[in-house]
Design brief:
Elements (H helix, E strand, L loop, with lengths): L2 H8 L11 H16 L3 H7 L6 E3 L11 E3 L17 H11 L6 E4 L6 E5 L2 E5 L13 E7 L6 E7 L2
């Protein structure tokens, strides 16, 4: 569940976004108001049912391998901006919240800036953005995870749509 999903579903006053300048803030408020006004009650009800977090065991439950935890912002709140310059201690705290151990992956977005870092053996992966990248590369982006063979491979993929 992303920040727009939860704030539109609950009728919250704004989207929980961070702005680089006043123009972007004004456009964001306009976009959010339009989205709230044009989202039907059944769709809002559906958005409210989306999970906050998804835990995957890509190699199955009976085989040793990583757990991949998917969240939008952080494991504690979907509107927190988890940027690459956060200290290792912040990453460690987020890993503790989900019970991550060495070899596991926590994947998130919200900032729309892709990056990958390993702290205490846990992979922290910002997946970027398919629809609105903010890293200066206008192409849609996502992350391809490879968890076979005991190592975690992370590749940022970009494509023109």
């Amino acid at each position: 569940m992303g920040n727009y999903d939860s704030t539109v579903a609950t009728g919250y006053k704004h989207c929980g976004c961070k702005y680089e300048d006043p123009r972007q803030e004004a456009l964001s408020h306009e976009s959010f108001a339009w989205t709230v006004a044009h989202t039907s009650a059944p769709t809002k009800a559906y958005l409210a049912t989306l999970p906050f977090r998804i835990d995957l065991r890509p190699l199955g439950g009976h085989v040793a391998g990583p757990t991949v935890t998917l969240v939008h912002g952080t494991p504690s709140l979907n509107t927190v901006y988890w940027t690459e310059d956060r200290p290792d201690g912040f990453c460690t705290k987020m890993a503790q919240l989900v019970g991550a151990r060495a070899g596991d992956v926590i994947a998130f977005g919200h900032t729309h800036l892709p990056w990958h870092r390993v702290v205490d053996g846990v992979h922290f992966v910002n997946t970027g953005s398919v629809g609105r990248p903010k890293d200066g590369d206008w192409r849609s982006g996502w992350v391809l995870l490879d968890v076979e063979g005991g190592d975690v491979g992370v590749e940022v993929v970009r494509i023109e749509l």
